[in-house]
């Protein structure tokens, strides 16, 4: 009899555990969906794919990423962002490029890597400014205002990244539009797209609790 009761108890426990797991997963799904939908709706009409149609901005904020993948191949996110920034500059849609990226290790200097690539494609060095403390998109956007004094700018990255950056900019009193760099193949970029869903949820956490950039520092004038 005791054995039967134990089996019944285990079945009930398993059933309740499965119900709880499914409930938690559903709630996570709802949160992710709402965060994604809110950011998409708030940034409609702010993204551009054609150089001719994007409004002129004095500064373009180029968001960083690693130049190479772990296997040594070129990171297409990097390559396409460089090409997009060059296209904007040569079309006269921006006068300066502010590169914001991670420079936390000797092996990873995103701003300098981007600068070298831009200069190689004809962008004058004196039109490029570097932000070495853009460890996260939040840091890059807030530092653009607090350190570099920008209240208006064009953000340069892939569309999914631009949406999130523009949303943060709006909440920080910055008038921003995004110029979408070419995206990578959906299968190659699957891991990035999954990570982006959680990054969008993190945006609301950061904004709600007033998370600050890791570093700010002295003012730098772009001129």
Give the end-to-end Cα distance, rounded to a whole number of Å. 85 Å
CATH fold type of the largest domain:
Rossmann fold
Arithmetic mean pLDDT: 90
Helix content: 40-55%
Query: How big is the Rg?
Result: 22 Å
Reported for the largest beta sheet, the result is: 6 strands, parallel
Are there runs of 5+ residues with pLDDT below 50, and where? Answer: none
Query: How big a fraction of the residues is strand?
Result: 5-15%
Side-by-side strand order of the widest sheet = 1-6-5-2-3-4
Report the CATH superfamily of the largest domain: HUPs
Count the domains: 2
Summarize the structure.
The chain is an alpha/beta fold.
What characteristics describe this protein?
223 residues; 2 domains; 49% helix; 6 strands; Rossmann fold; single chain; 6 helices; 6-stranded parallel beta sheet; alpha/beta
Task: Present the secondary structure layout.
Blueprint: H1 2-42, E1 47-48, E2 59-63, H2 76-90, E3 96-100, H3 110-120, E4 128-131, H4 137-146, E5 152-157, H5 159-171, E6 175-180, H6 190-208
Parallel strand pairs: 1-6, 2-3, 2-5, 3-4, 5-6
